Amino acid sequence: MYKLLIVVNVDWFFISHRLCIAEQAIENGWEVIVAAEDSGRSKEITARGITFIPFPFSRSGTNPFVELKLLLKFRNLYKDIAPDIVHHITLKPVIYGSLAAKFTKIPSIVNAISGLGYNFTGDNQGTVAKIMIKLMKVGFKHKNIGFIFQNKDDCSELRGLGVLNEKNKIFYIKGSGVDLKKFNQSPLPSVDRLVILFPVRMLWDKGVAELREATRLLKDKYSNRIQFILSGLADNDNKAGVSSTYLKDWEDGEYVKWIGYQKDMVAVYNSCNIVVLPSYREGMPRTLIEACAIGRPIVTTNAIGCRECVDEGVNGFKVPVKSTTELANAIEKLILNPDLMSKMGVASRVKAEKEFDQLNVVRKHFEIYQELYEQ
Q1: Answer CATH for 194-355 from 3.40.50.2000, 3.30.450.20, 3.40.47.40, 1.10.10.10
Q2: Is residue 297 within 8 Å of 348, Cβ to Cβ?
Q3: pLDDT in tens, 115-136
Q4: pLDDT of 62 strictly over 80
C-alpha cells in the first residue's frame, strides 16, 4: 500500500482543487495524509478517510529565522510520516517541501506549479523571489522529482531562470479539472438585467481595479440593463488583498453587488450570463474552467493561464492585461448580442468536455505517481 502525503497551504484550497485525487487514492487502497492550515474545514477531509495534520505557515514570510524554523518543520514532518510519494501544491510547499524531501530521502516528489505569480518573474522580481530561486535550484536536484505545470509559459520561465535541470520530469495538466456532472451545462437565464459574474478571491492582481473602472465606463448606458456580481472573499491576510472597505465603497447593491464567499458556486454560475476575469496572470484559473463547464461566455485577459481558457471569438474575448476601455468594450459586445452570448456559452461547454474533464485529470495524476515511484 502506497503512502501519499499532500502538502498544501490551506484546507479549503485542497478541498476545491485536489480532494478528488485523494478520494481516488483512498479508493485504490492507499494511505493519504494531508498537511495544511486548518481554516475550519478539516473535518470535511477526515470524513473521507484522509488523515489531516494541521500545518500552518505564512504564505509571504520574509523573516529568515522564521523561515528556517519552517524548513525544519517540513523536515520533521517528512521524517515522522516517511511517505512513498509527497505531492506539493502551491509555490511555498514546492520550494520548502522539495528541500525537506531531499534531506529526508523521500523516494518520489511531485511538485504542482499552479502559477508563479505576477511578482515572481521578469522586472517584478524582488529580493525574496531571488532567494526562492536559489532554494529551488538546490531542492530540485533530486533523482526522482516530477513537475506538473498548468501551462507551458511557467515551465519556460523556470527553465530560463535555470531552476529546472535535465533530471526533472515535466508533465502538463490543464488545471485541476472540473466535475462535468456537478457543473453541468445550463441555459443562460432569461432576465431583464444581465448578470456579469466576477468569481474570485479579491486580490489586486485579479484585475479588481480594472474591472471597477470598466463598470464605471459602462454605467451611464447600461446601469438598468446589467448587474455586476462580485463573488469572493476579501483576502485580508494577503499583501495583495483588496480590502472590504474598497469593495463596499464600490458596490451599491443594484448595479454592483458584492456577495462574498459562496459555497454553492453552481447556483452562482447558473444565475449569471457572462463570466469576467481580468487577471494579470494565472496558472489555470478554476473559475474559468467552471464557467466553461456551466456554459458561459467569458471575458478575460490575454495573460498566461487565462488565455488557455478562451478561444478568441469562439467562447469569449481576450483583452490586454490592465486594460479598462478594451475590457468594457468586450463586455459591451456581449450585452448587445444575445445570440453571440448563447453561441459562446455552448462553445465553452464543448471546450470543457474536451480539455477540462476532472476524470482525465485524476487519471493523469496516478500515471505520474506510478511513473515516479517505479523509477
Answers
A1: 3.40.50.2000
A2: yes
A3: 665 445 455 556 767 778 888 8
A4: no
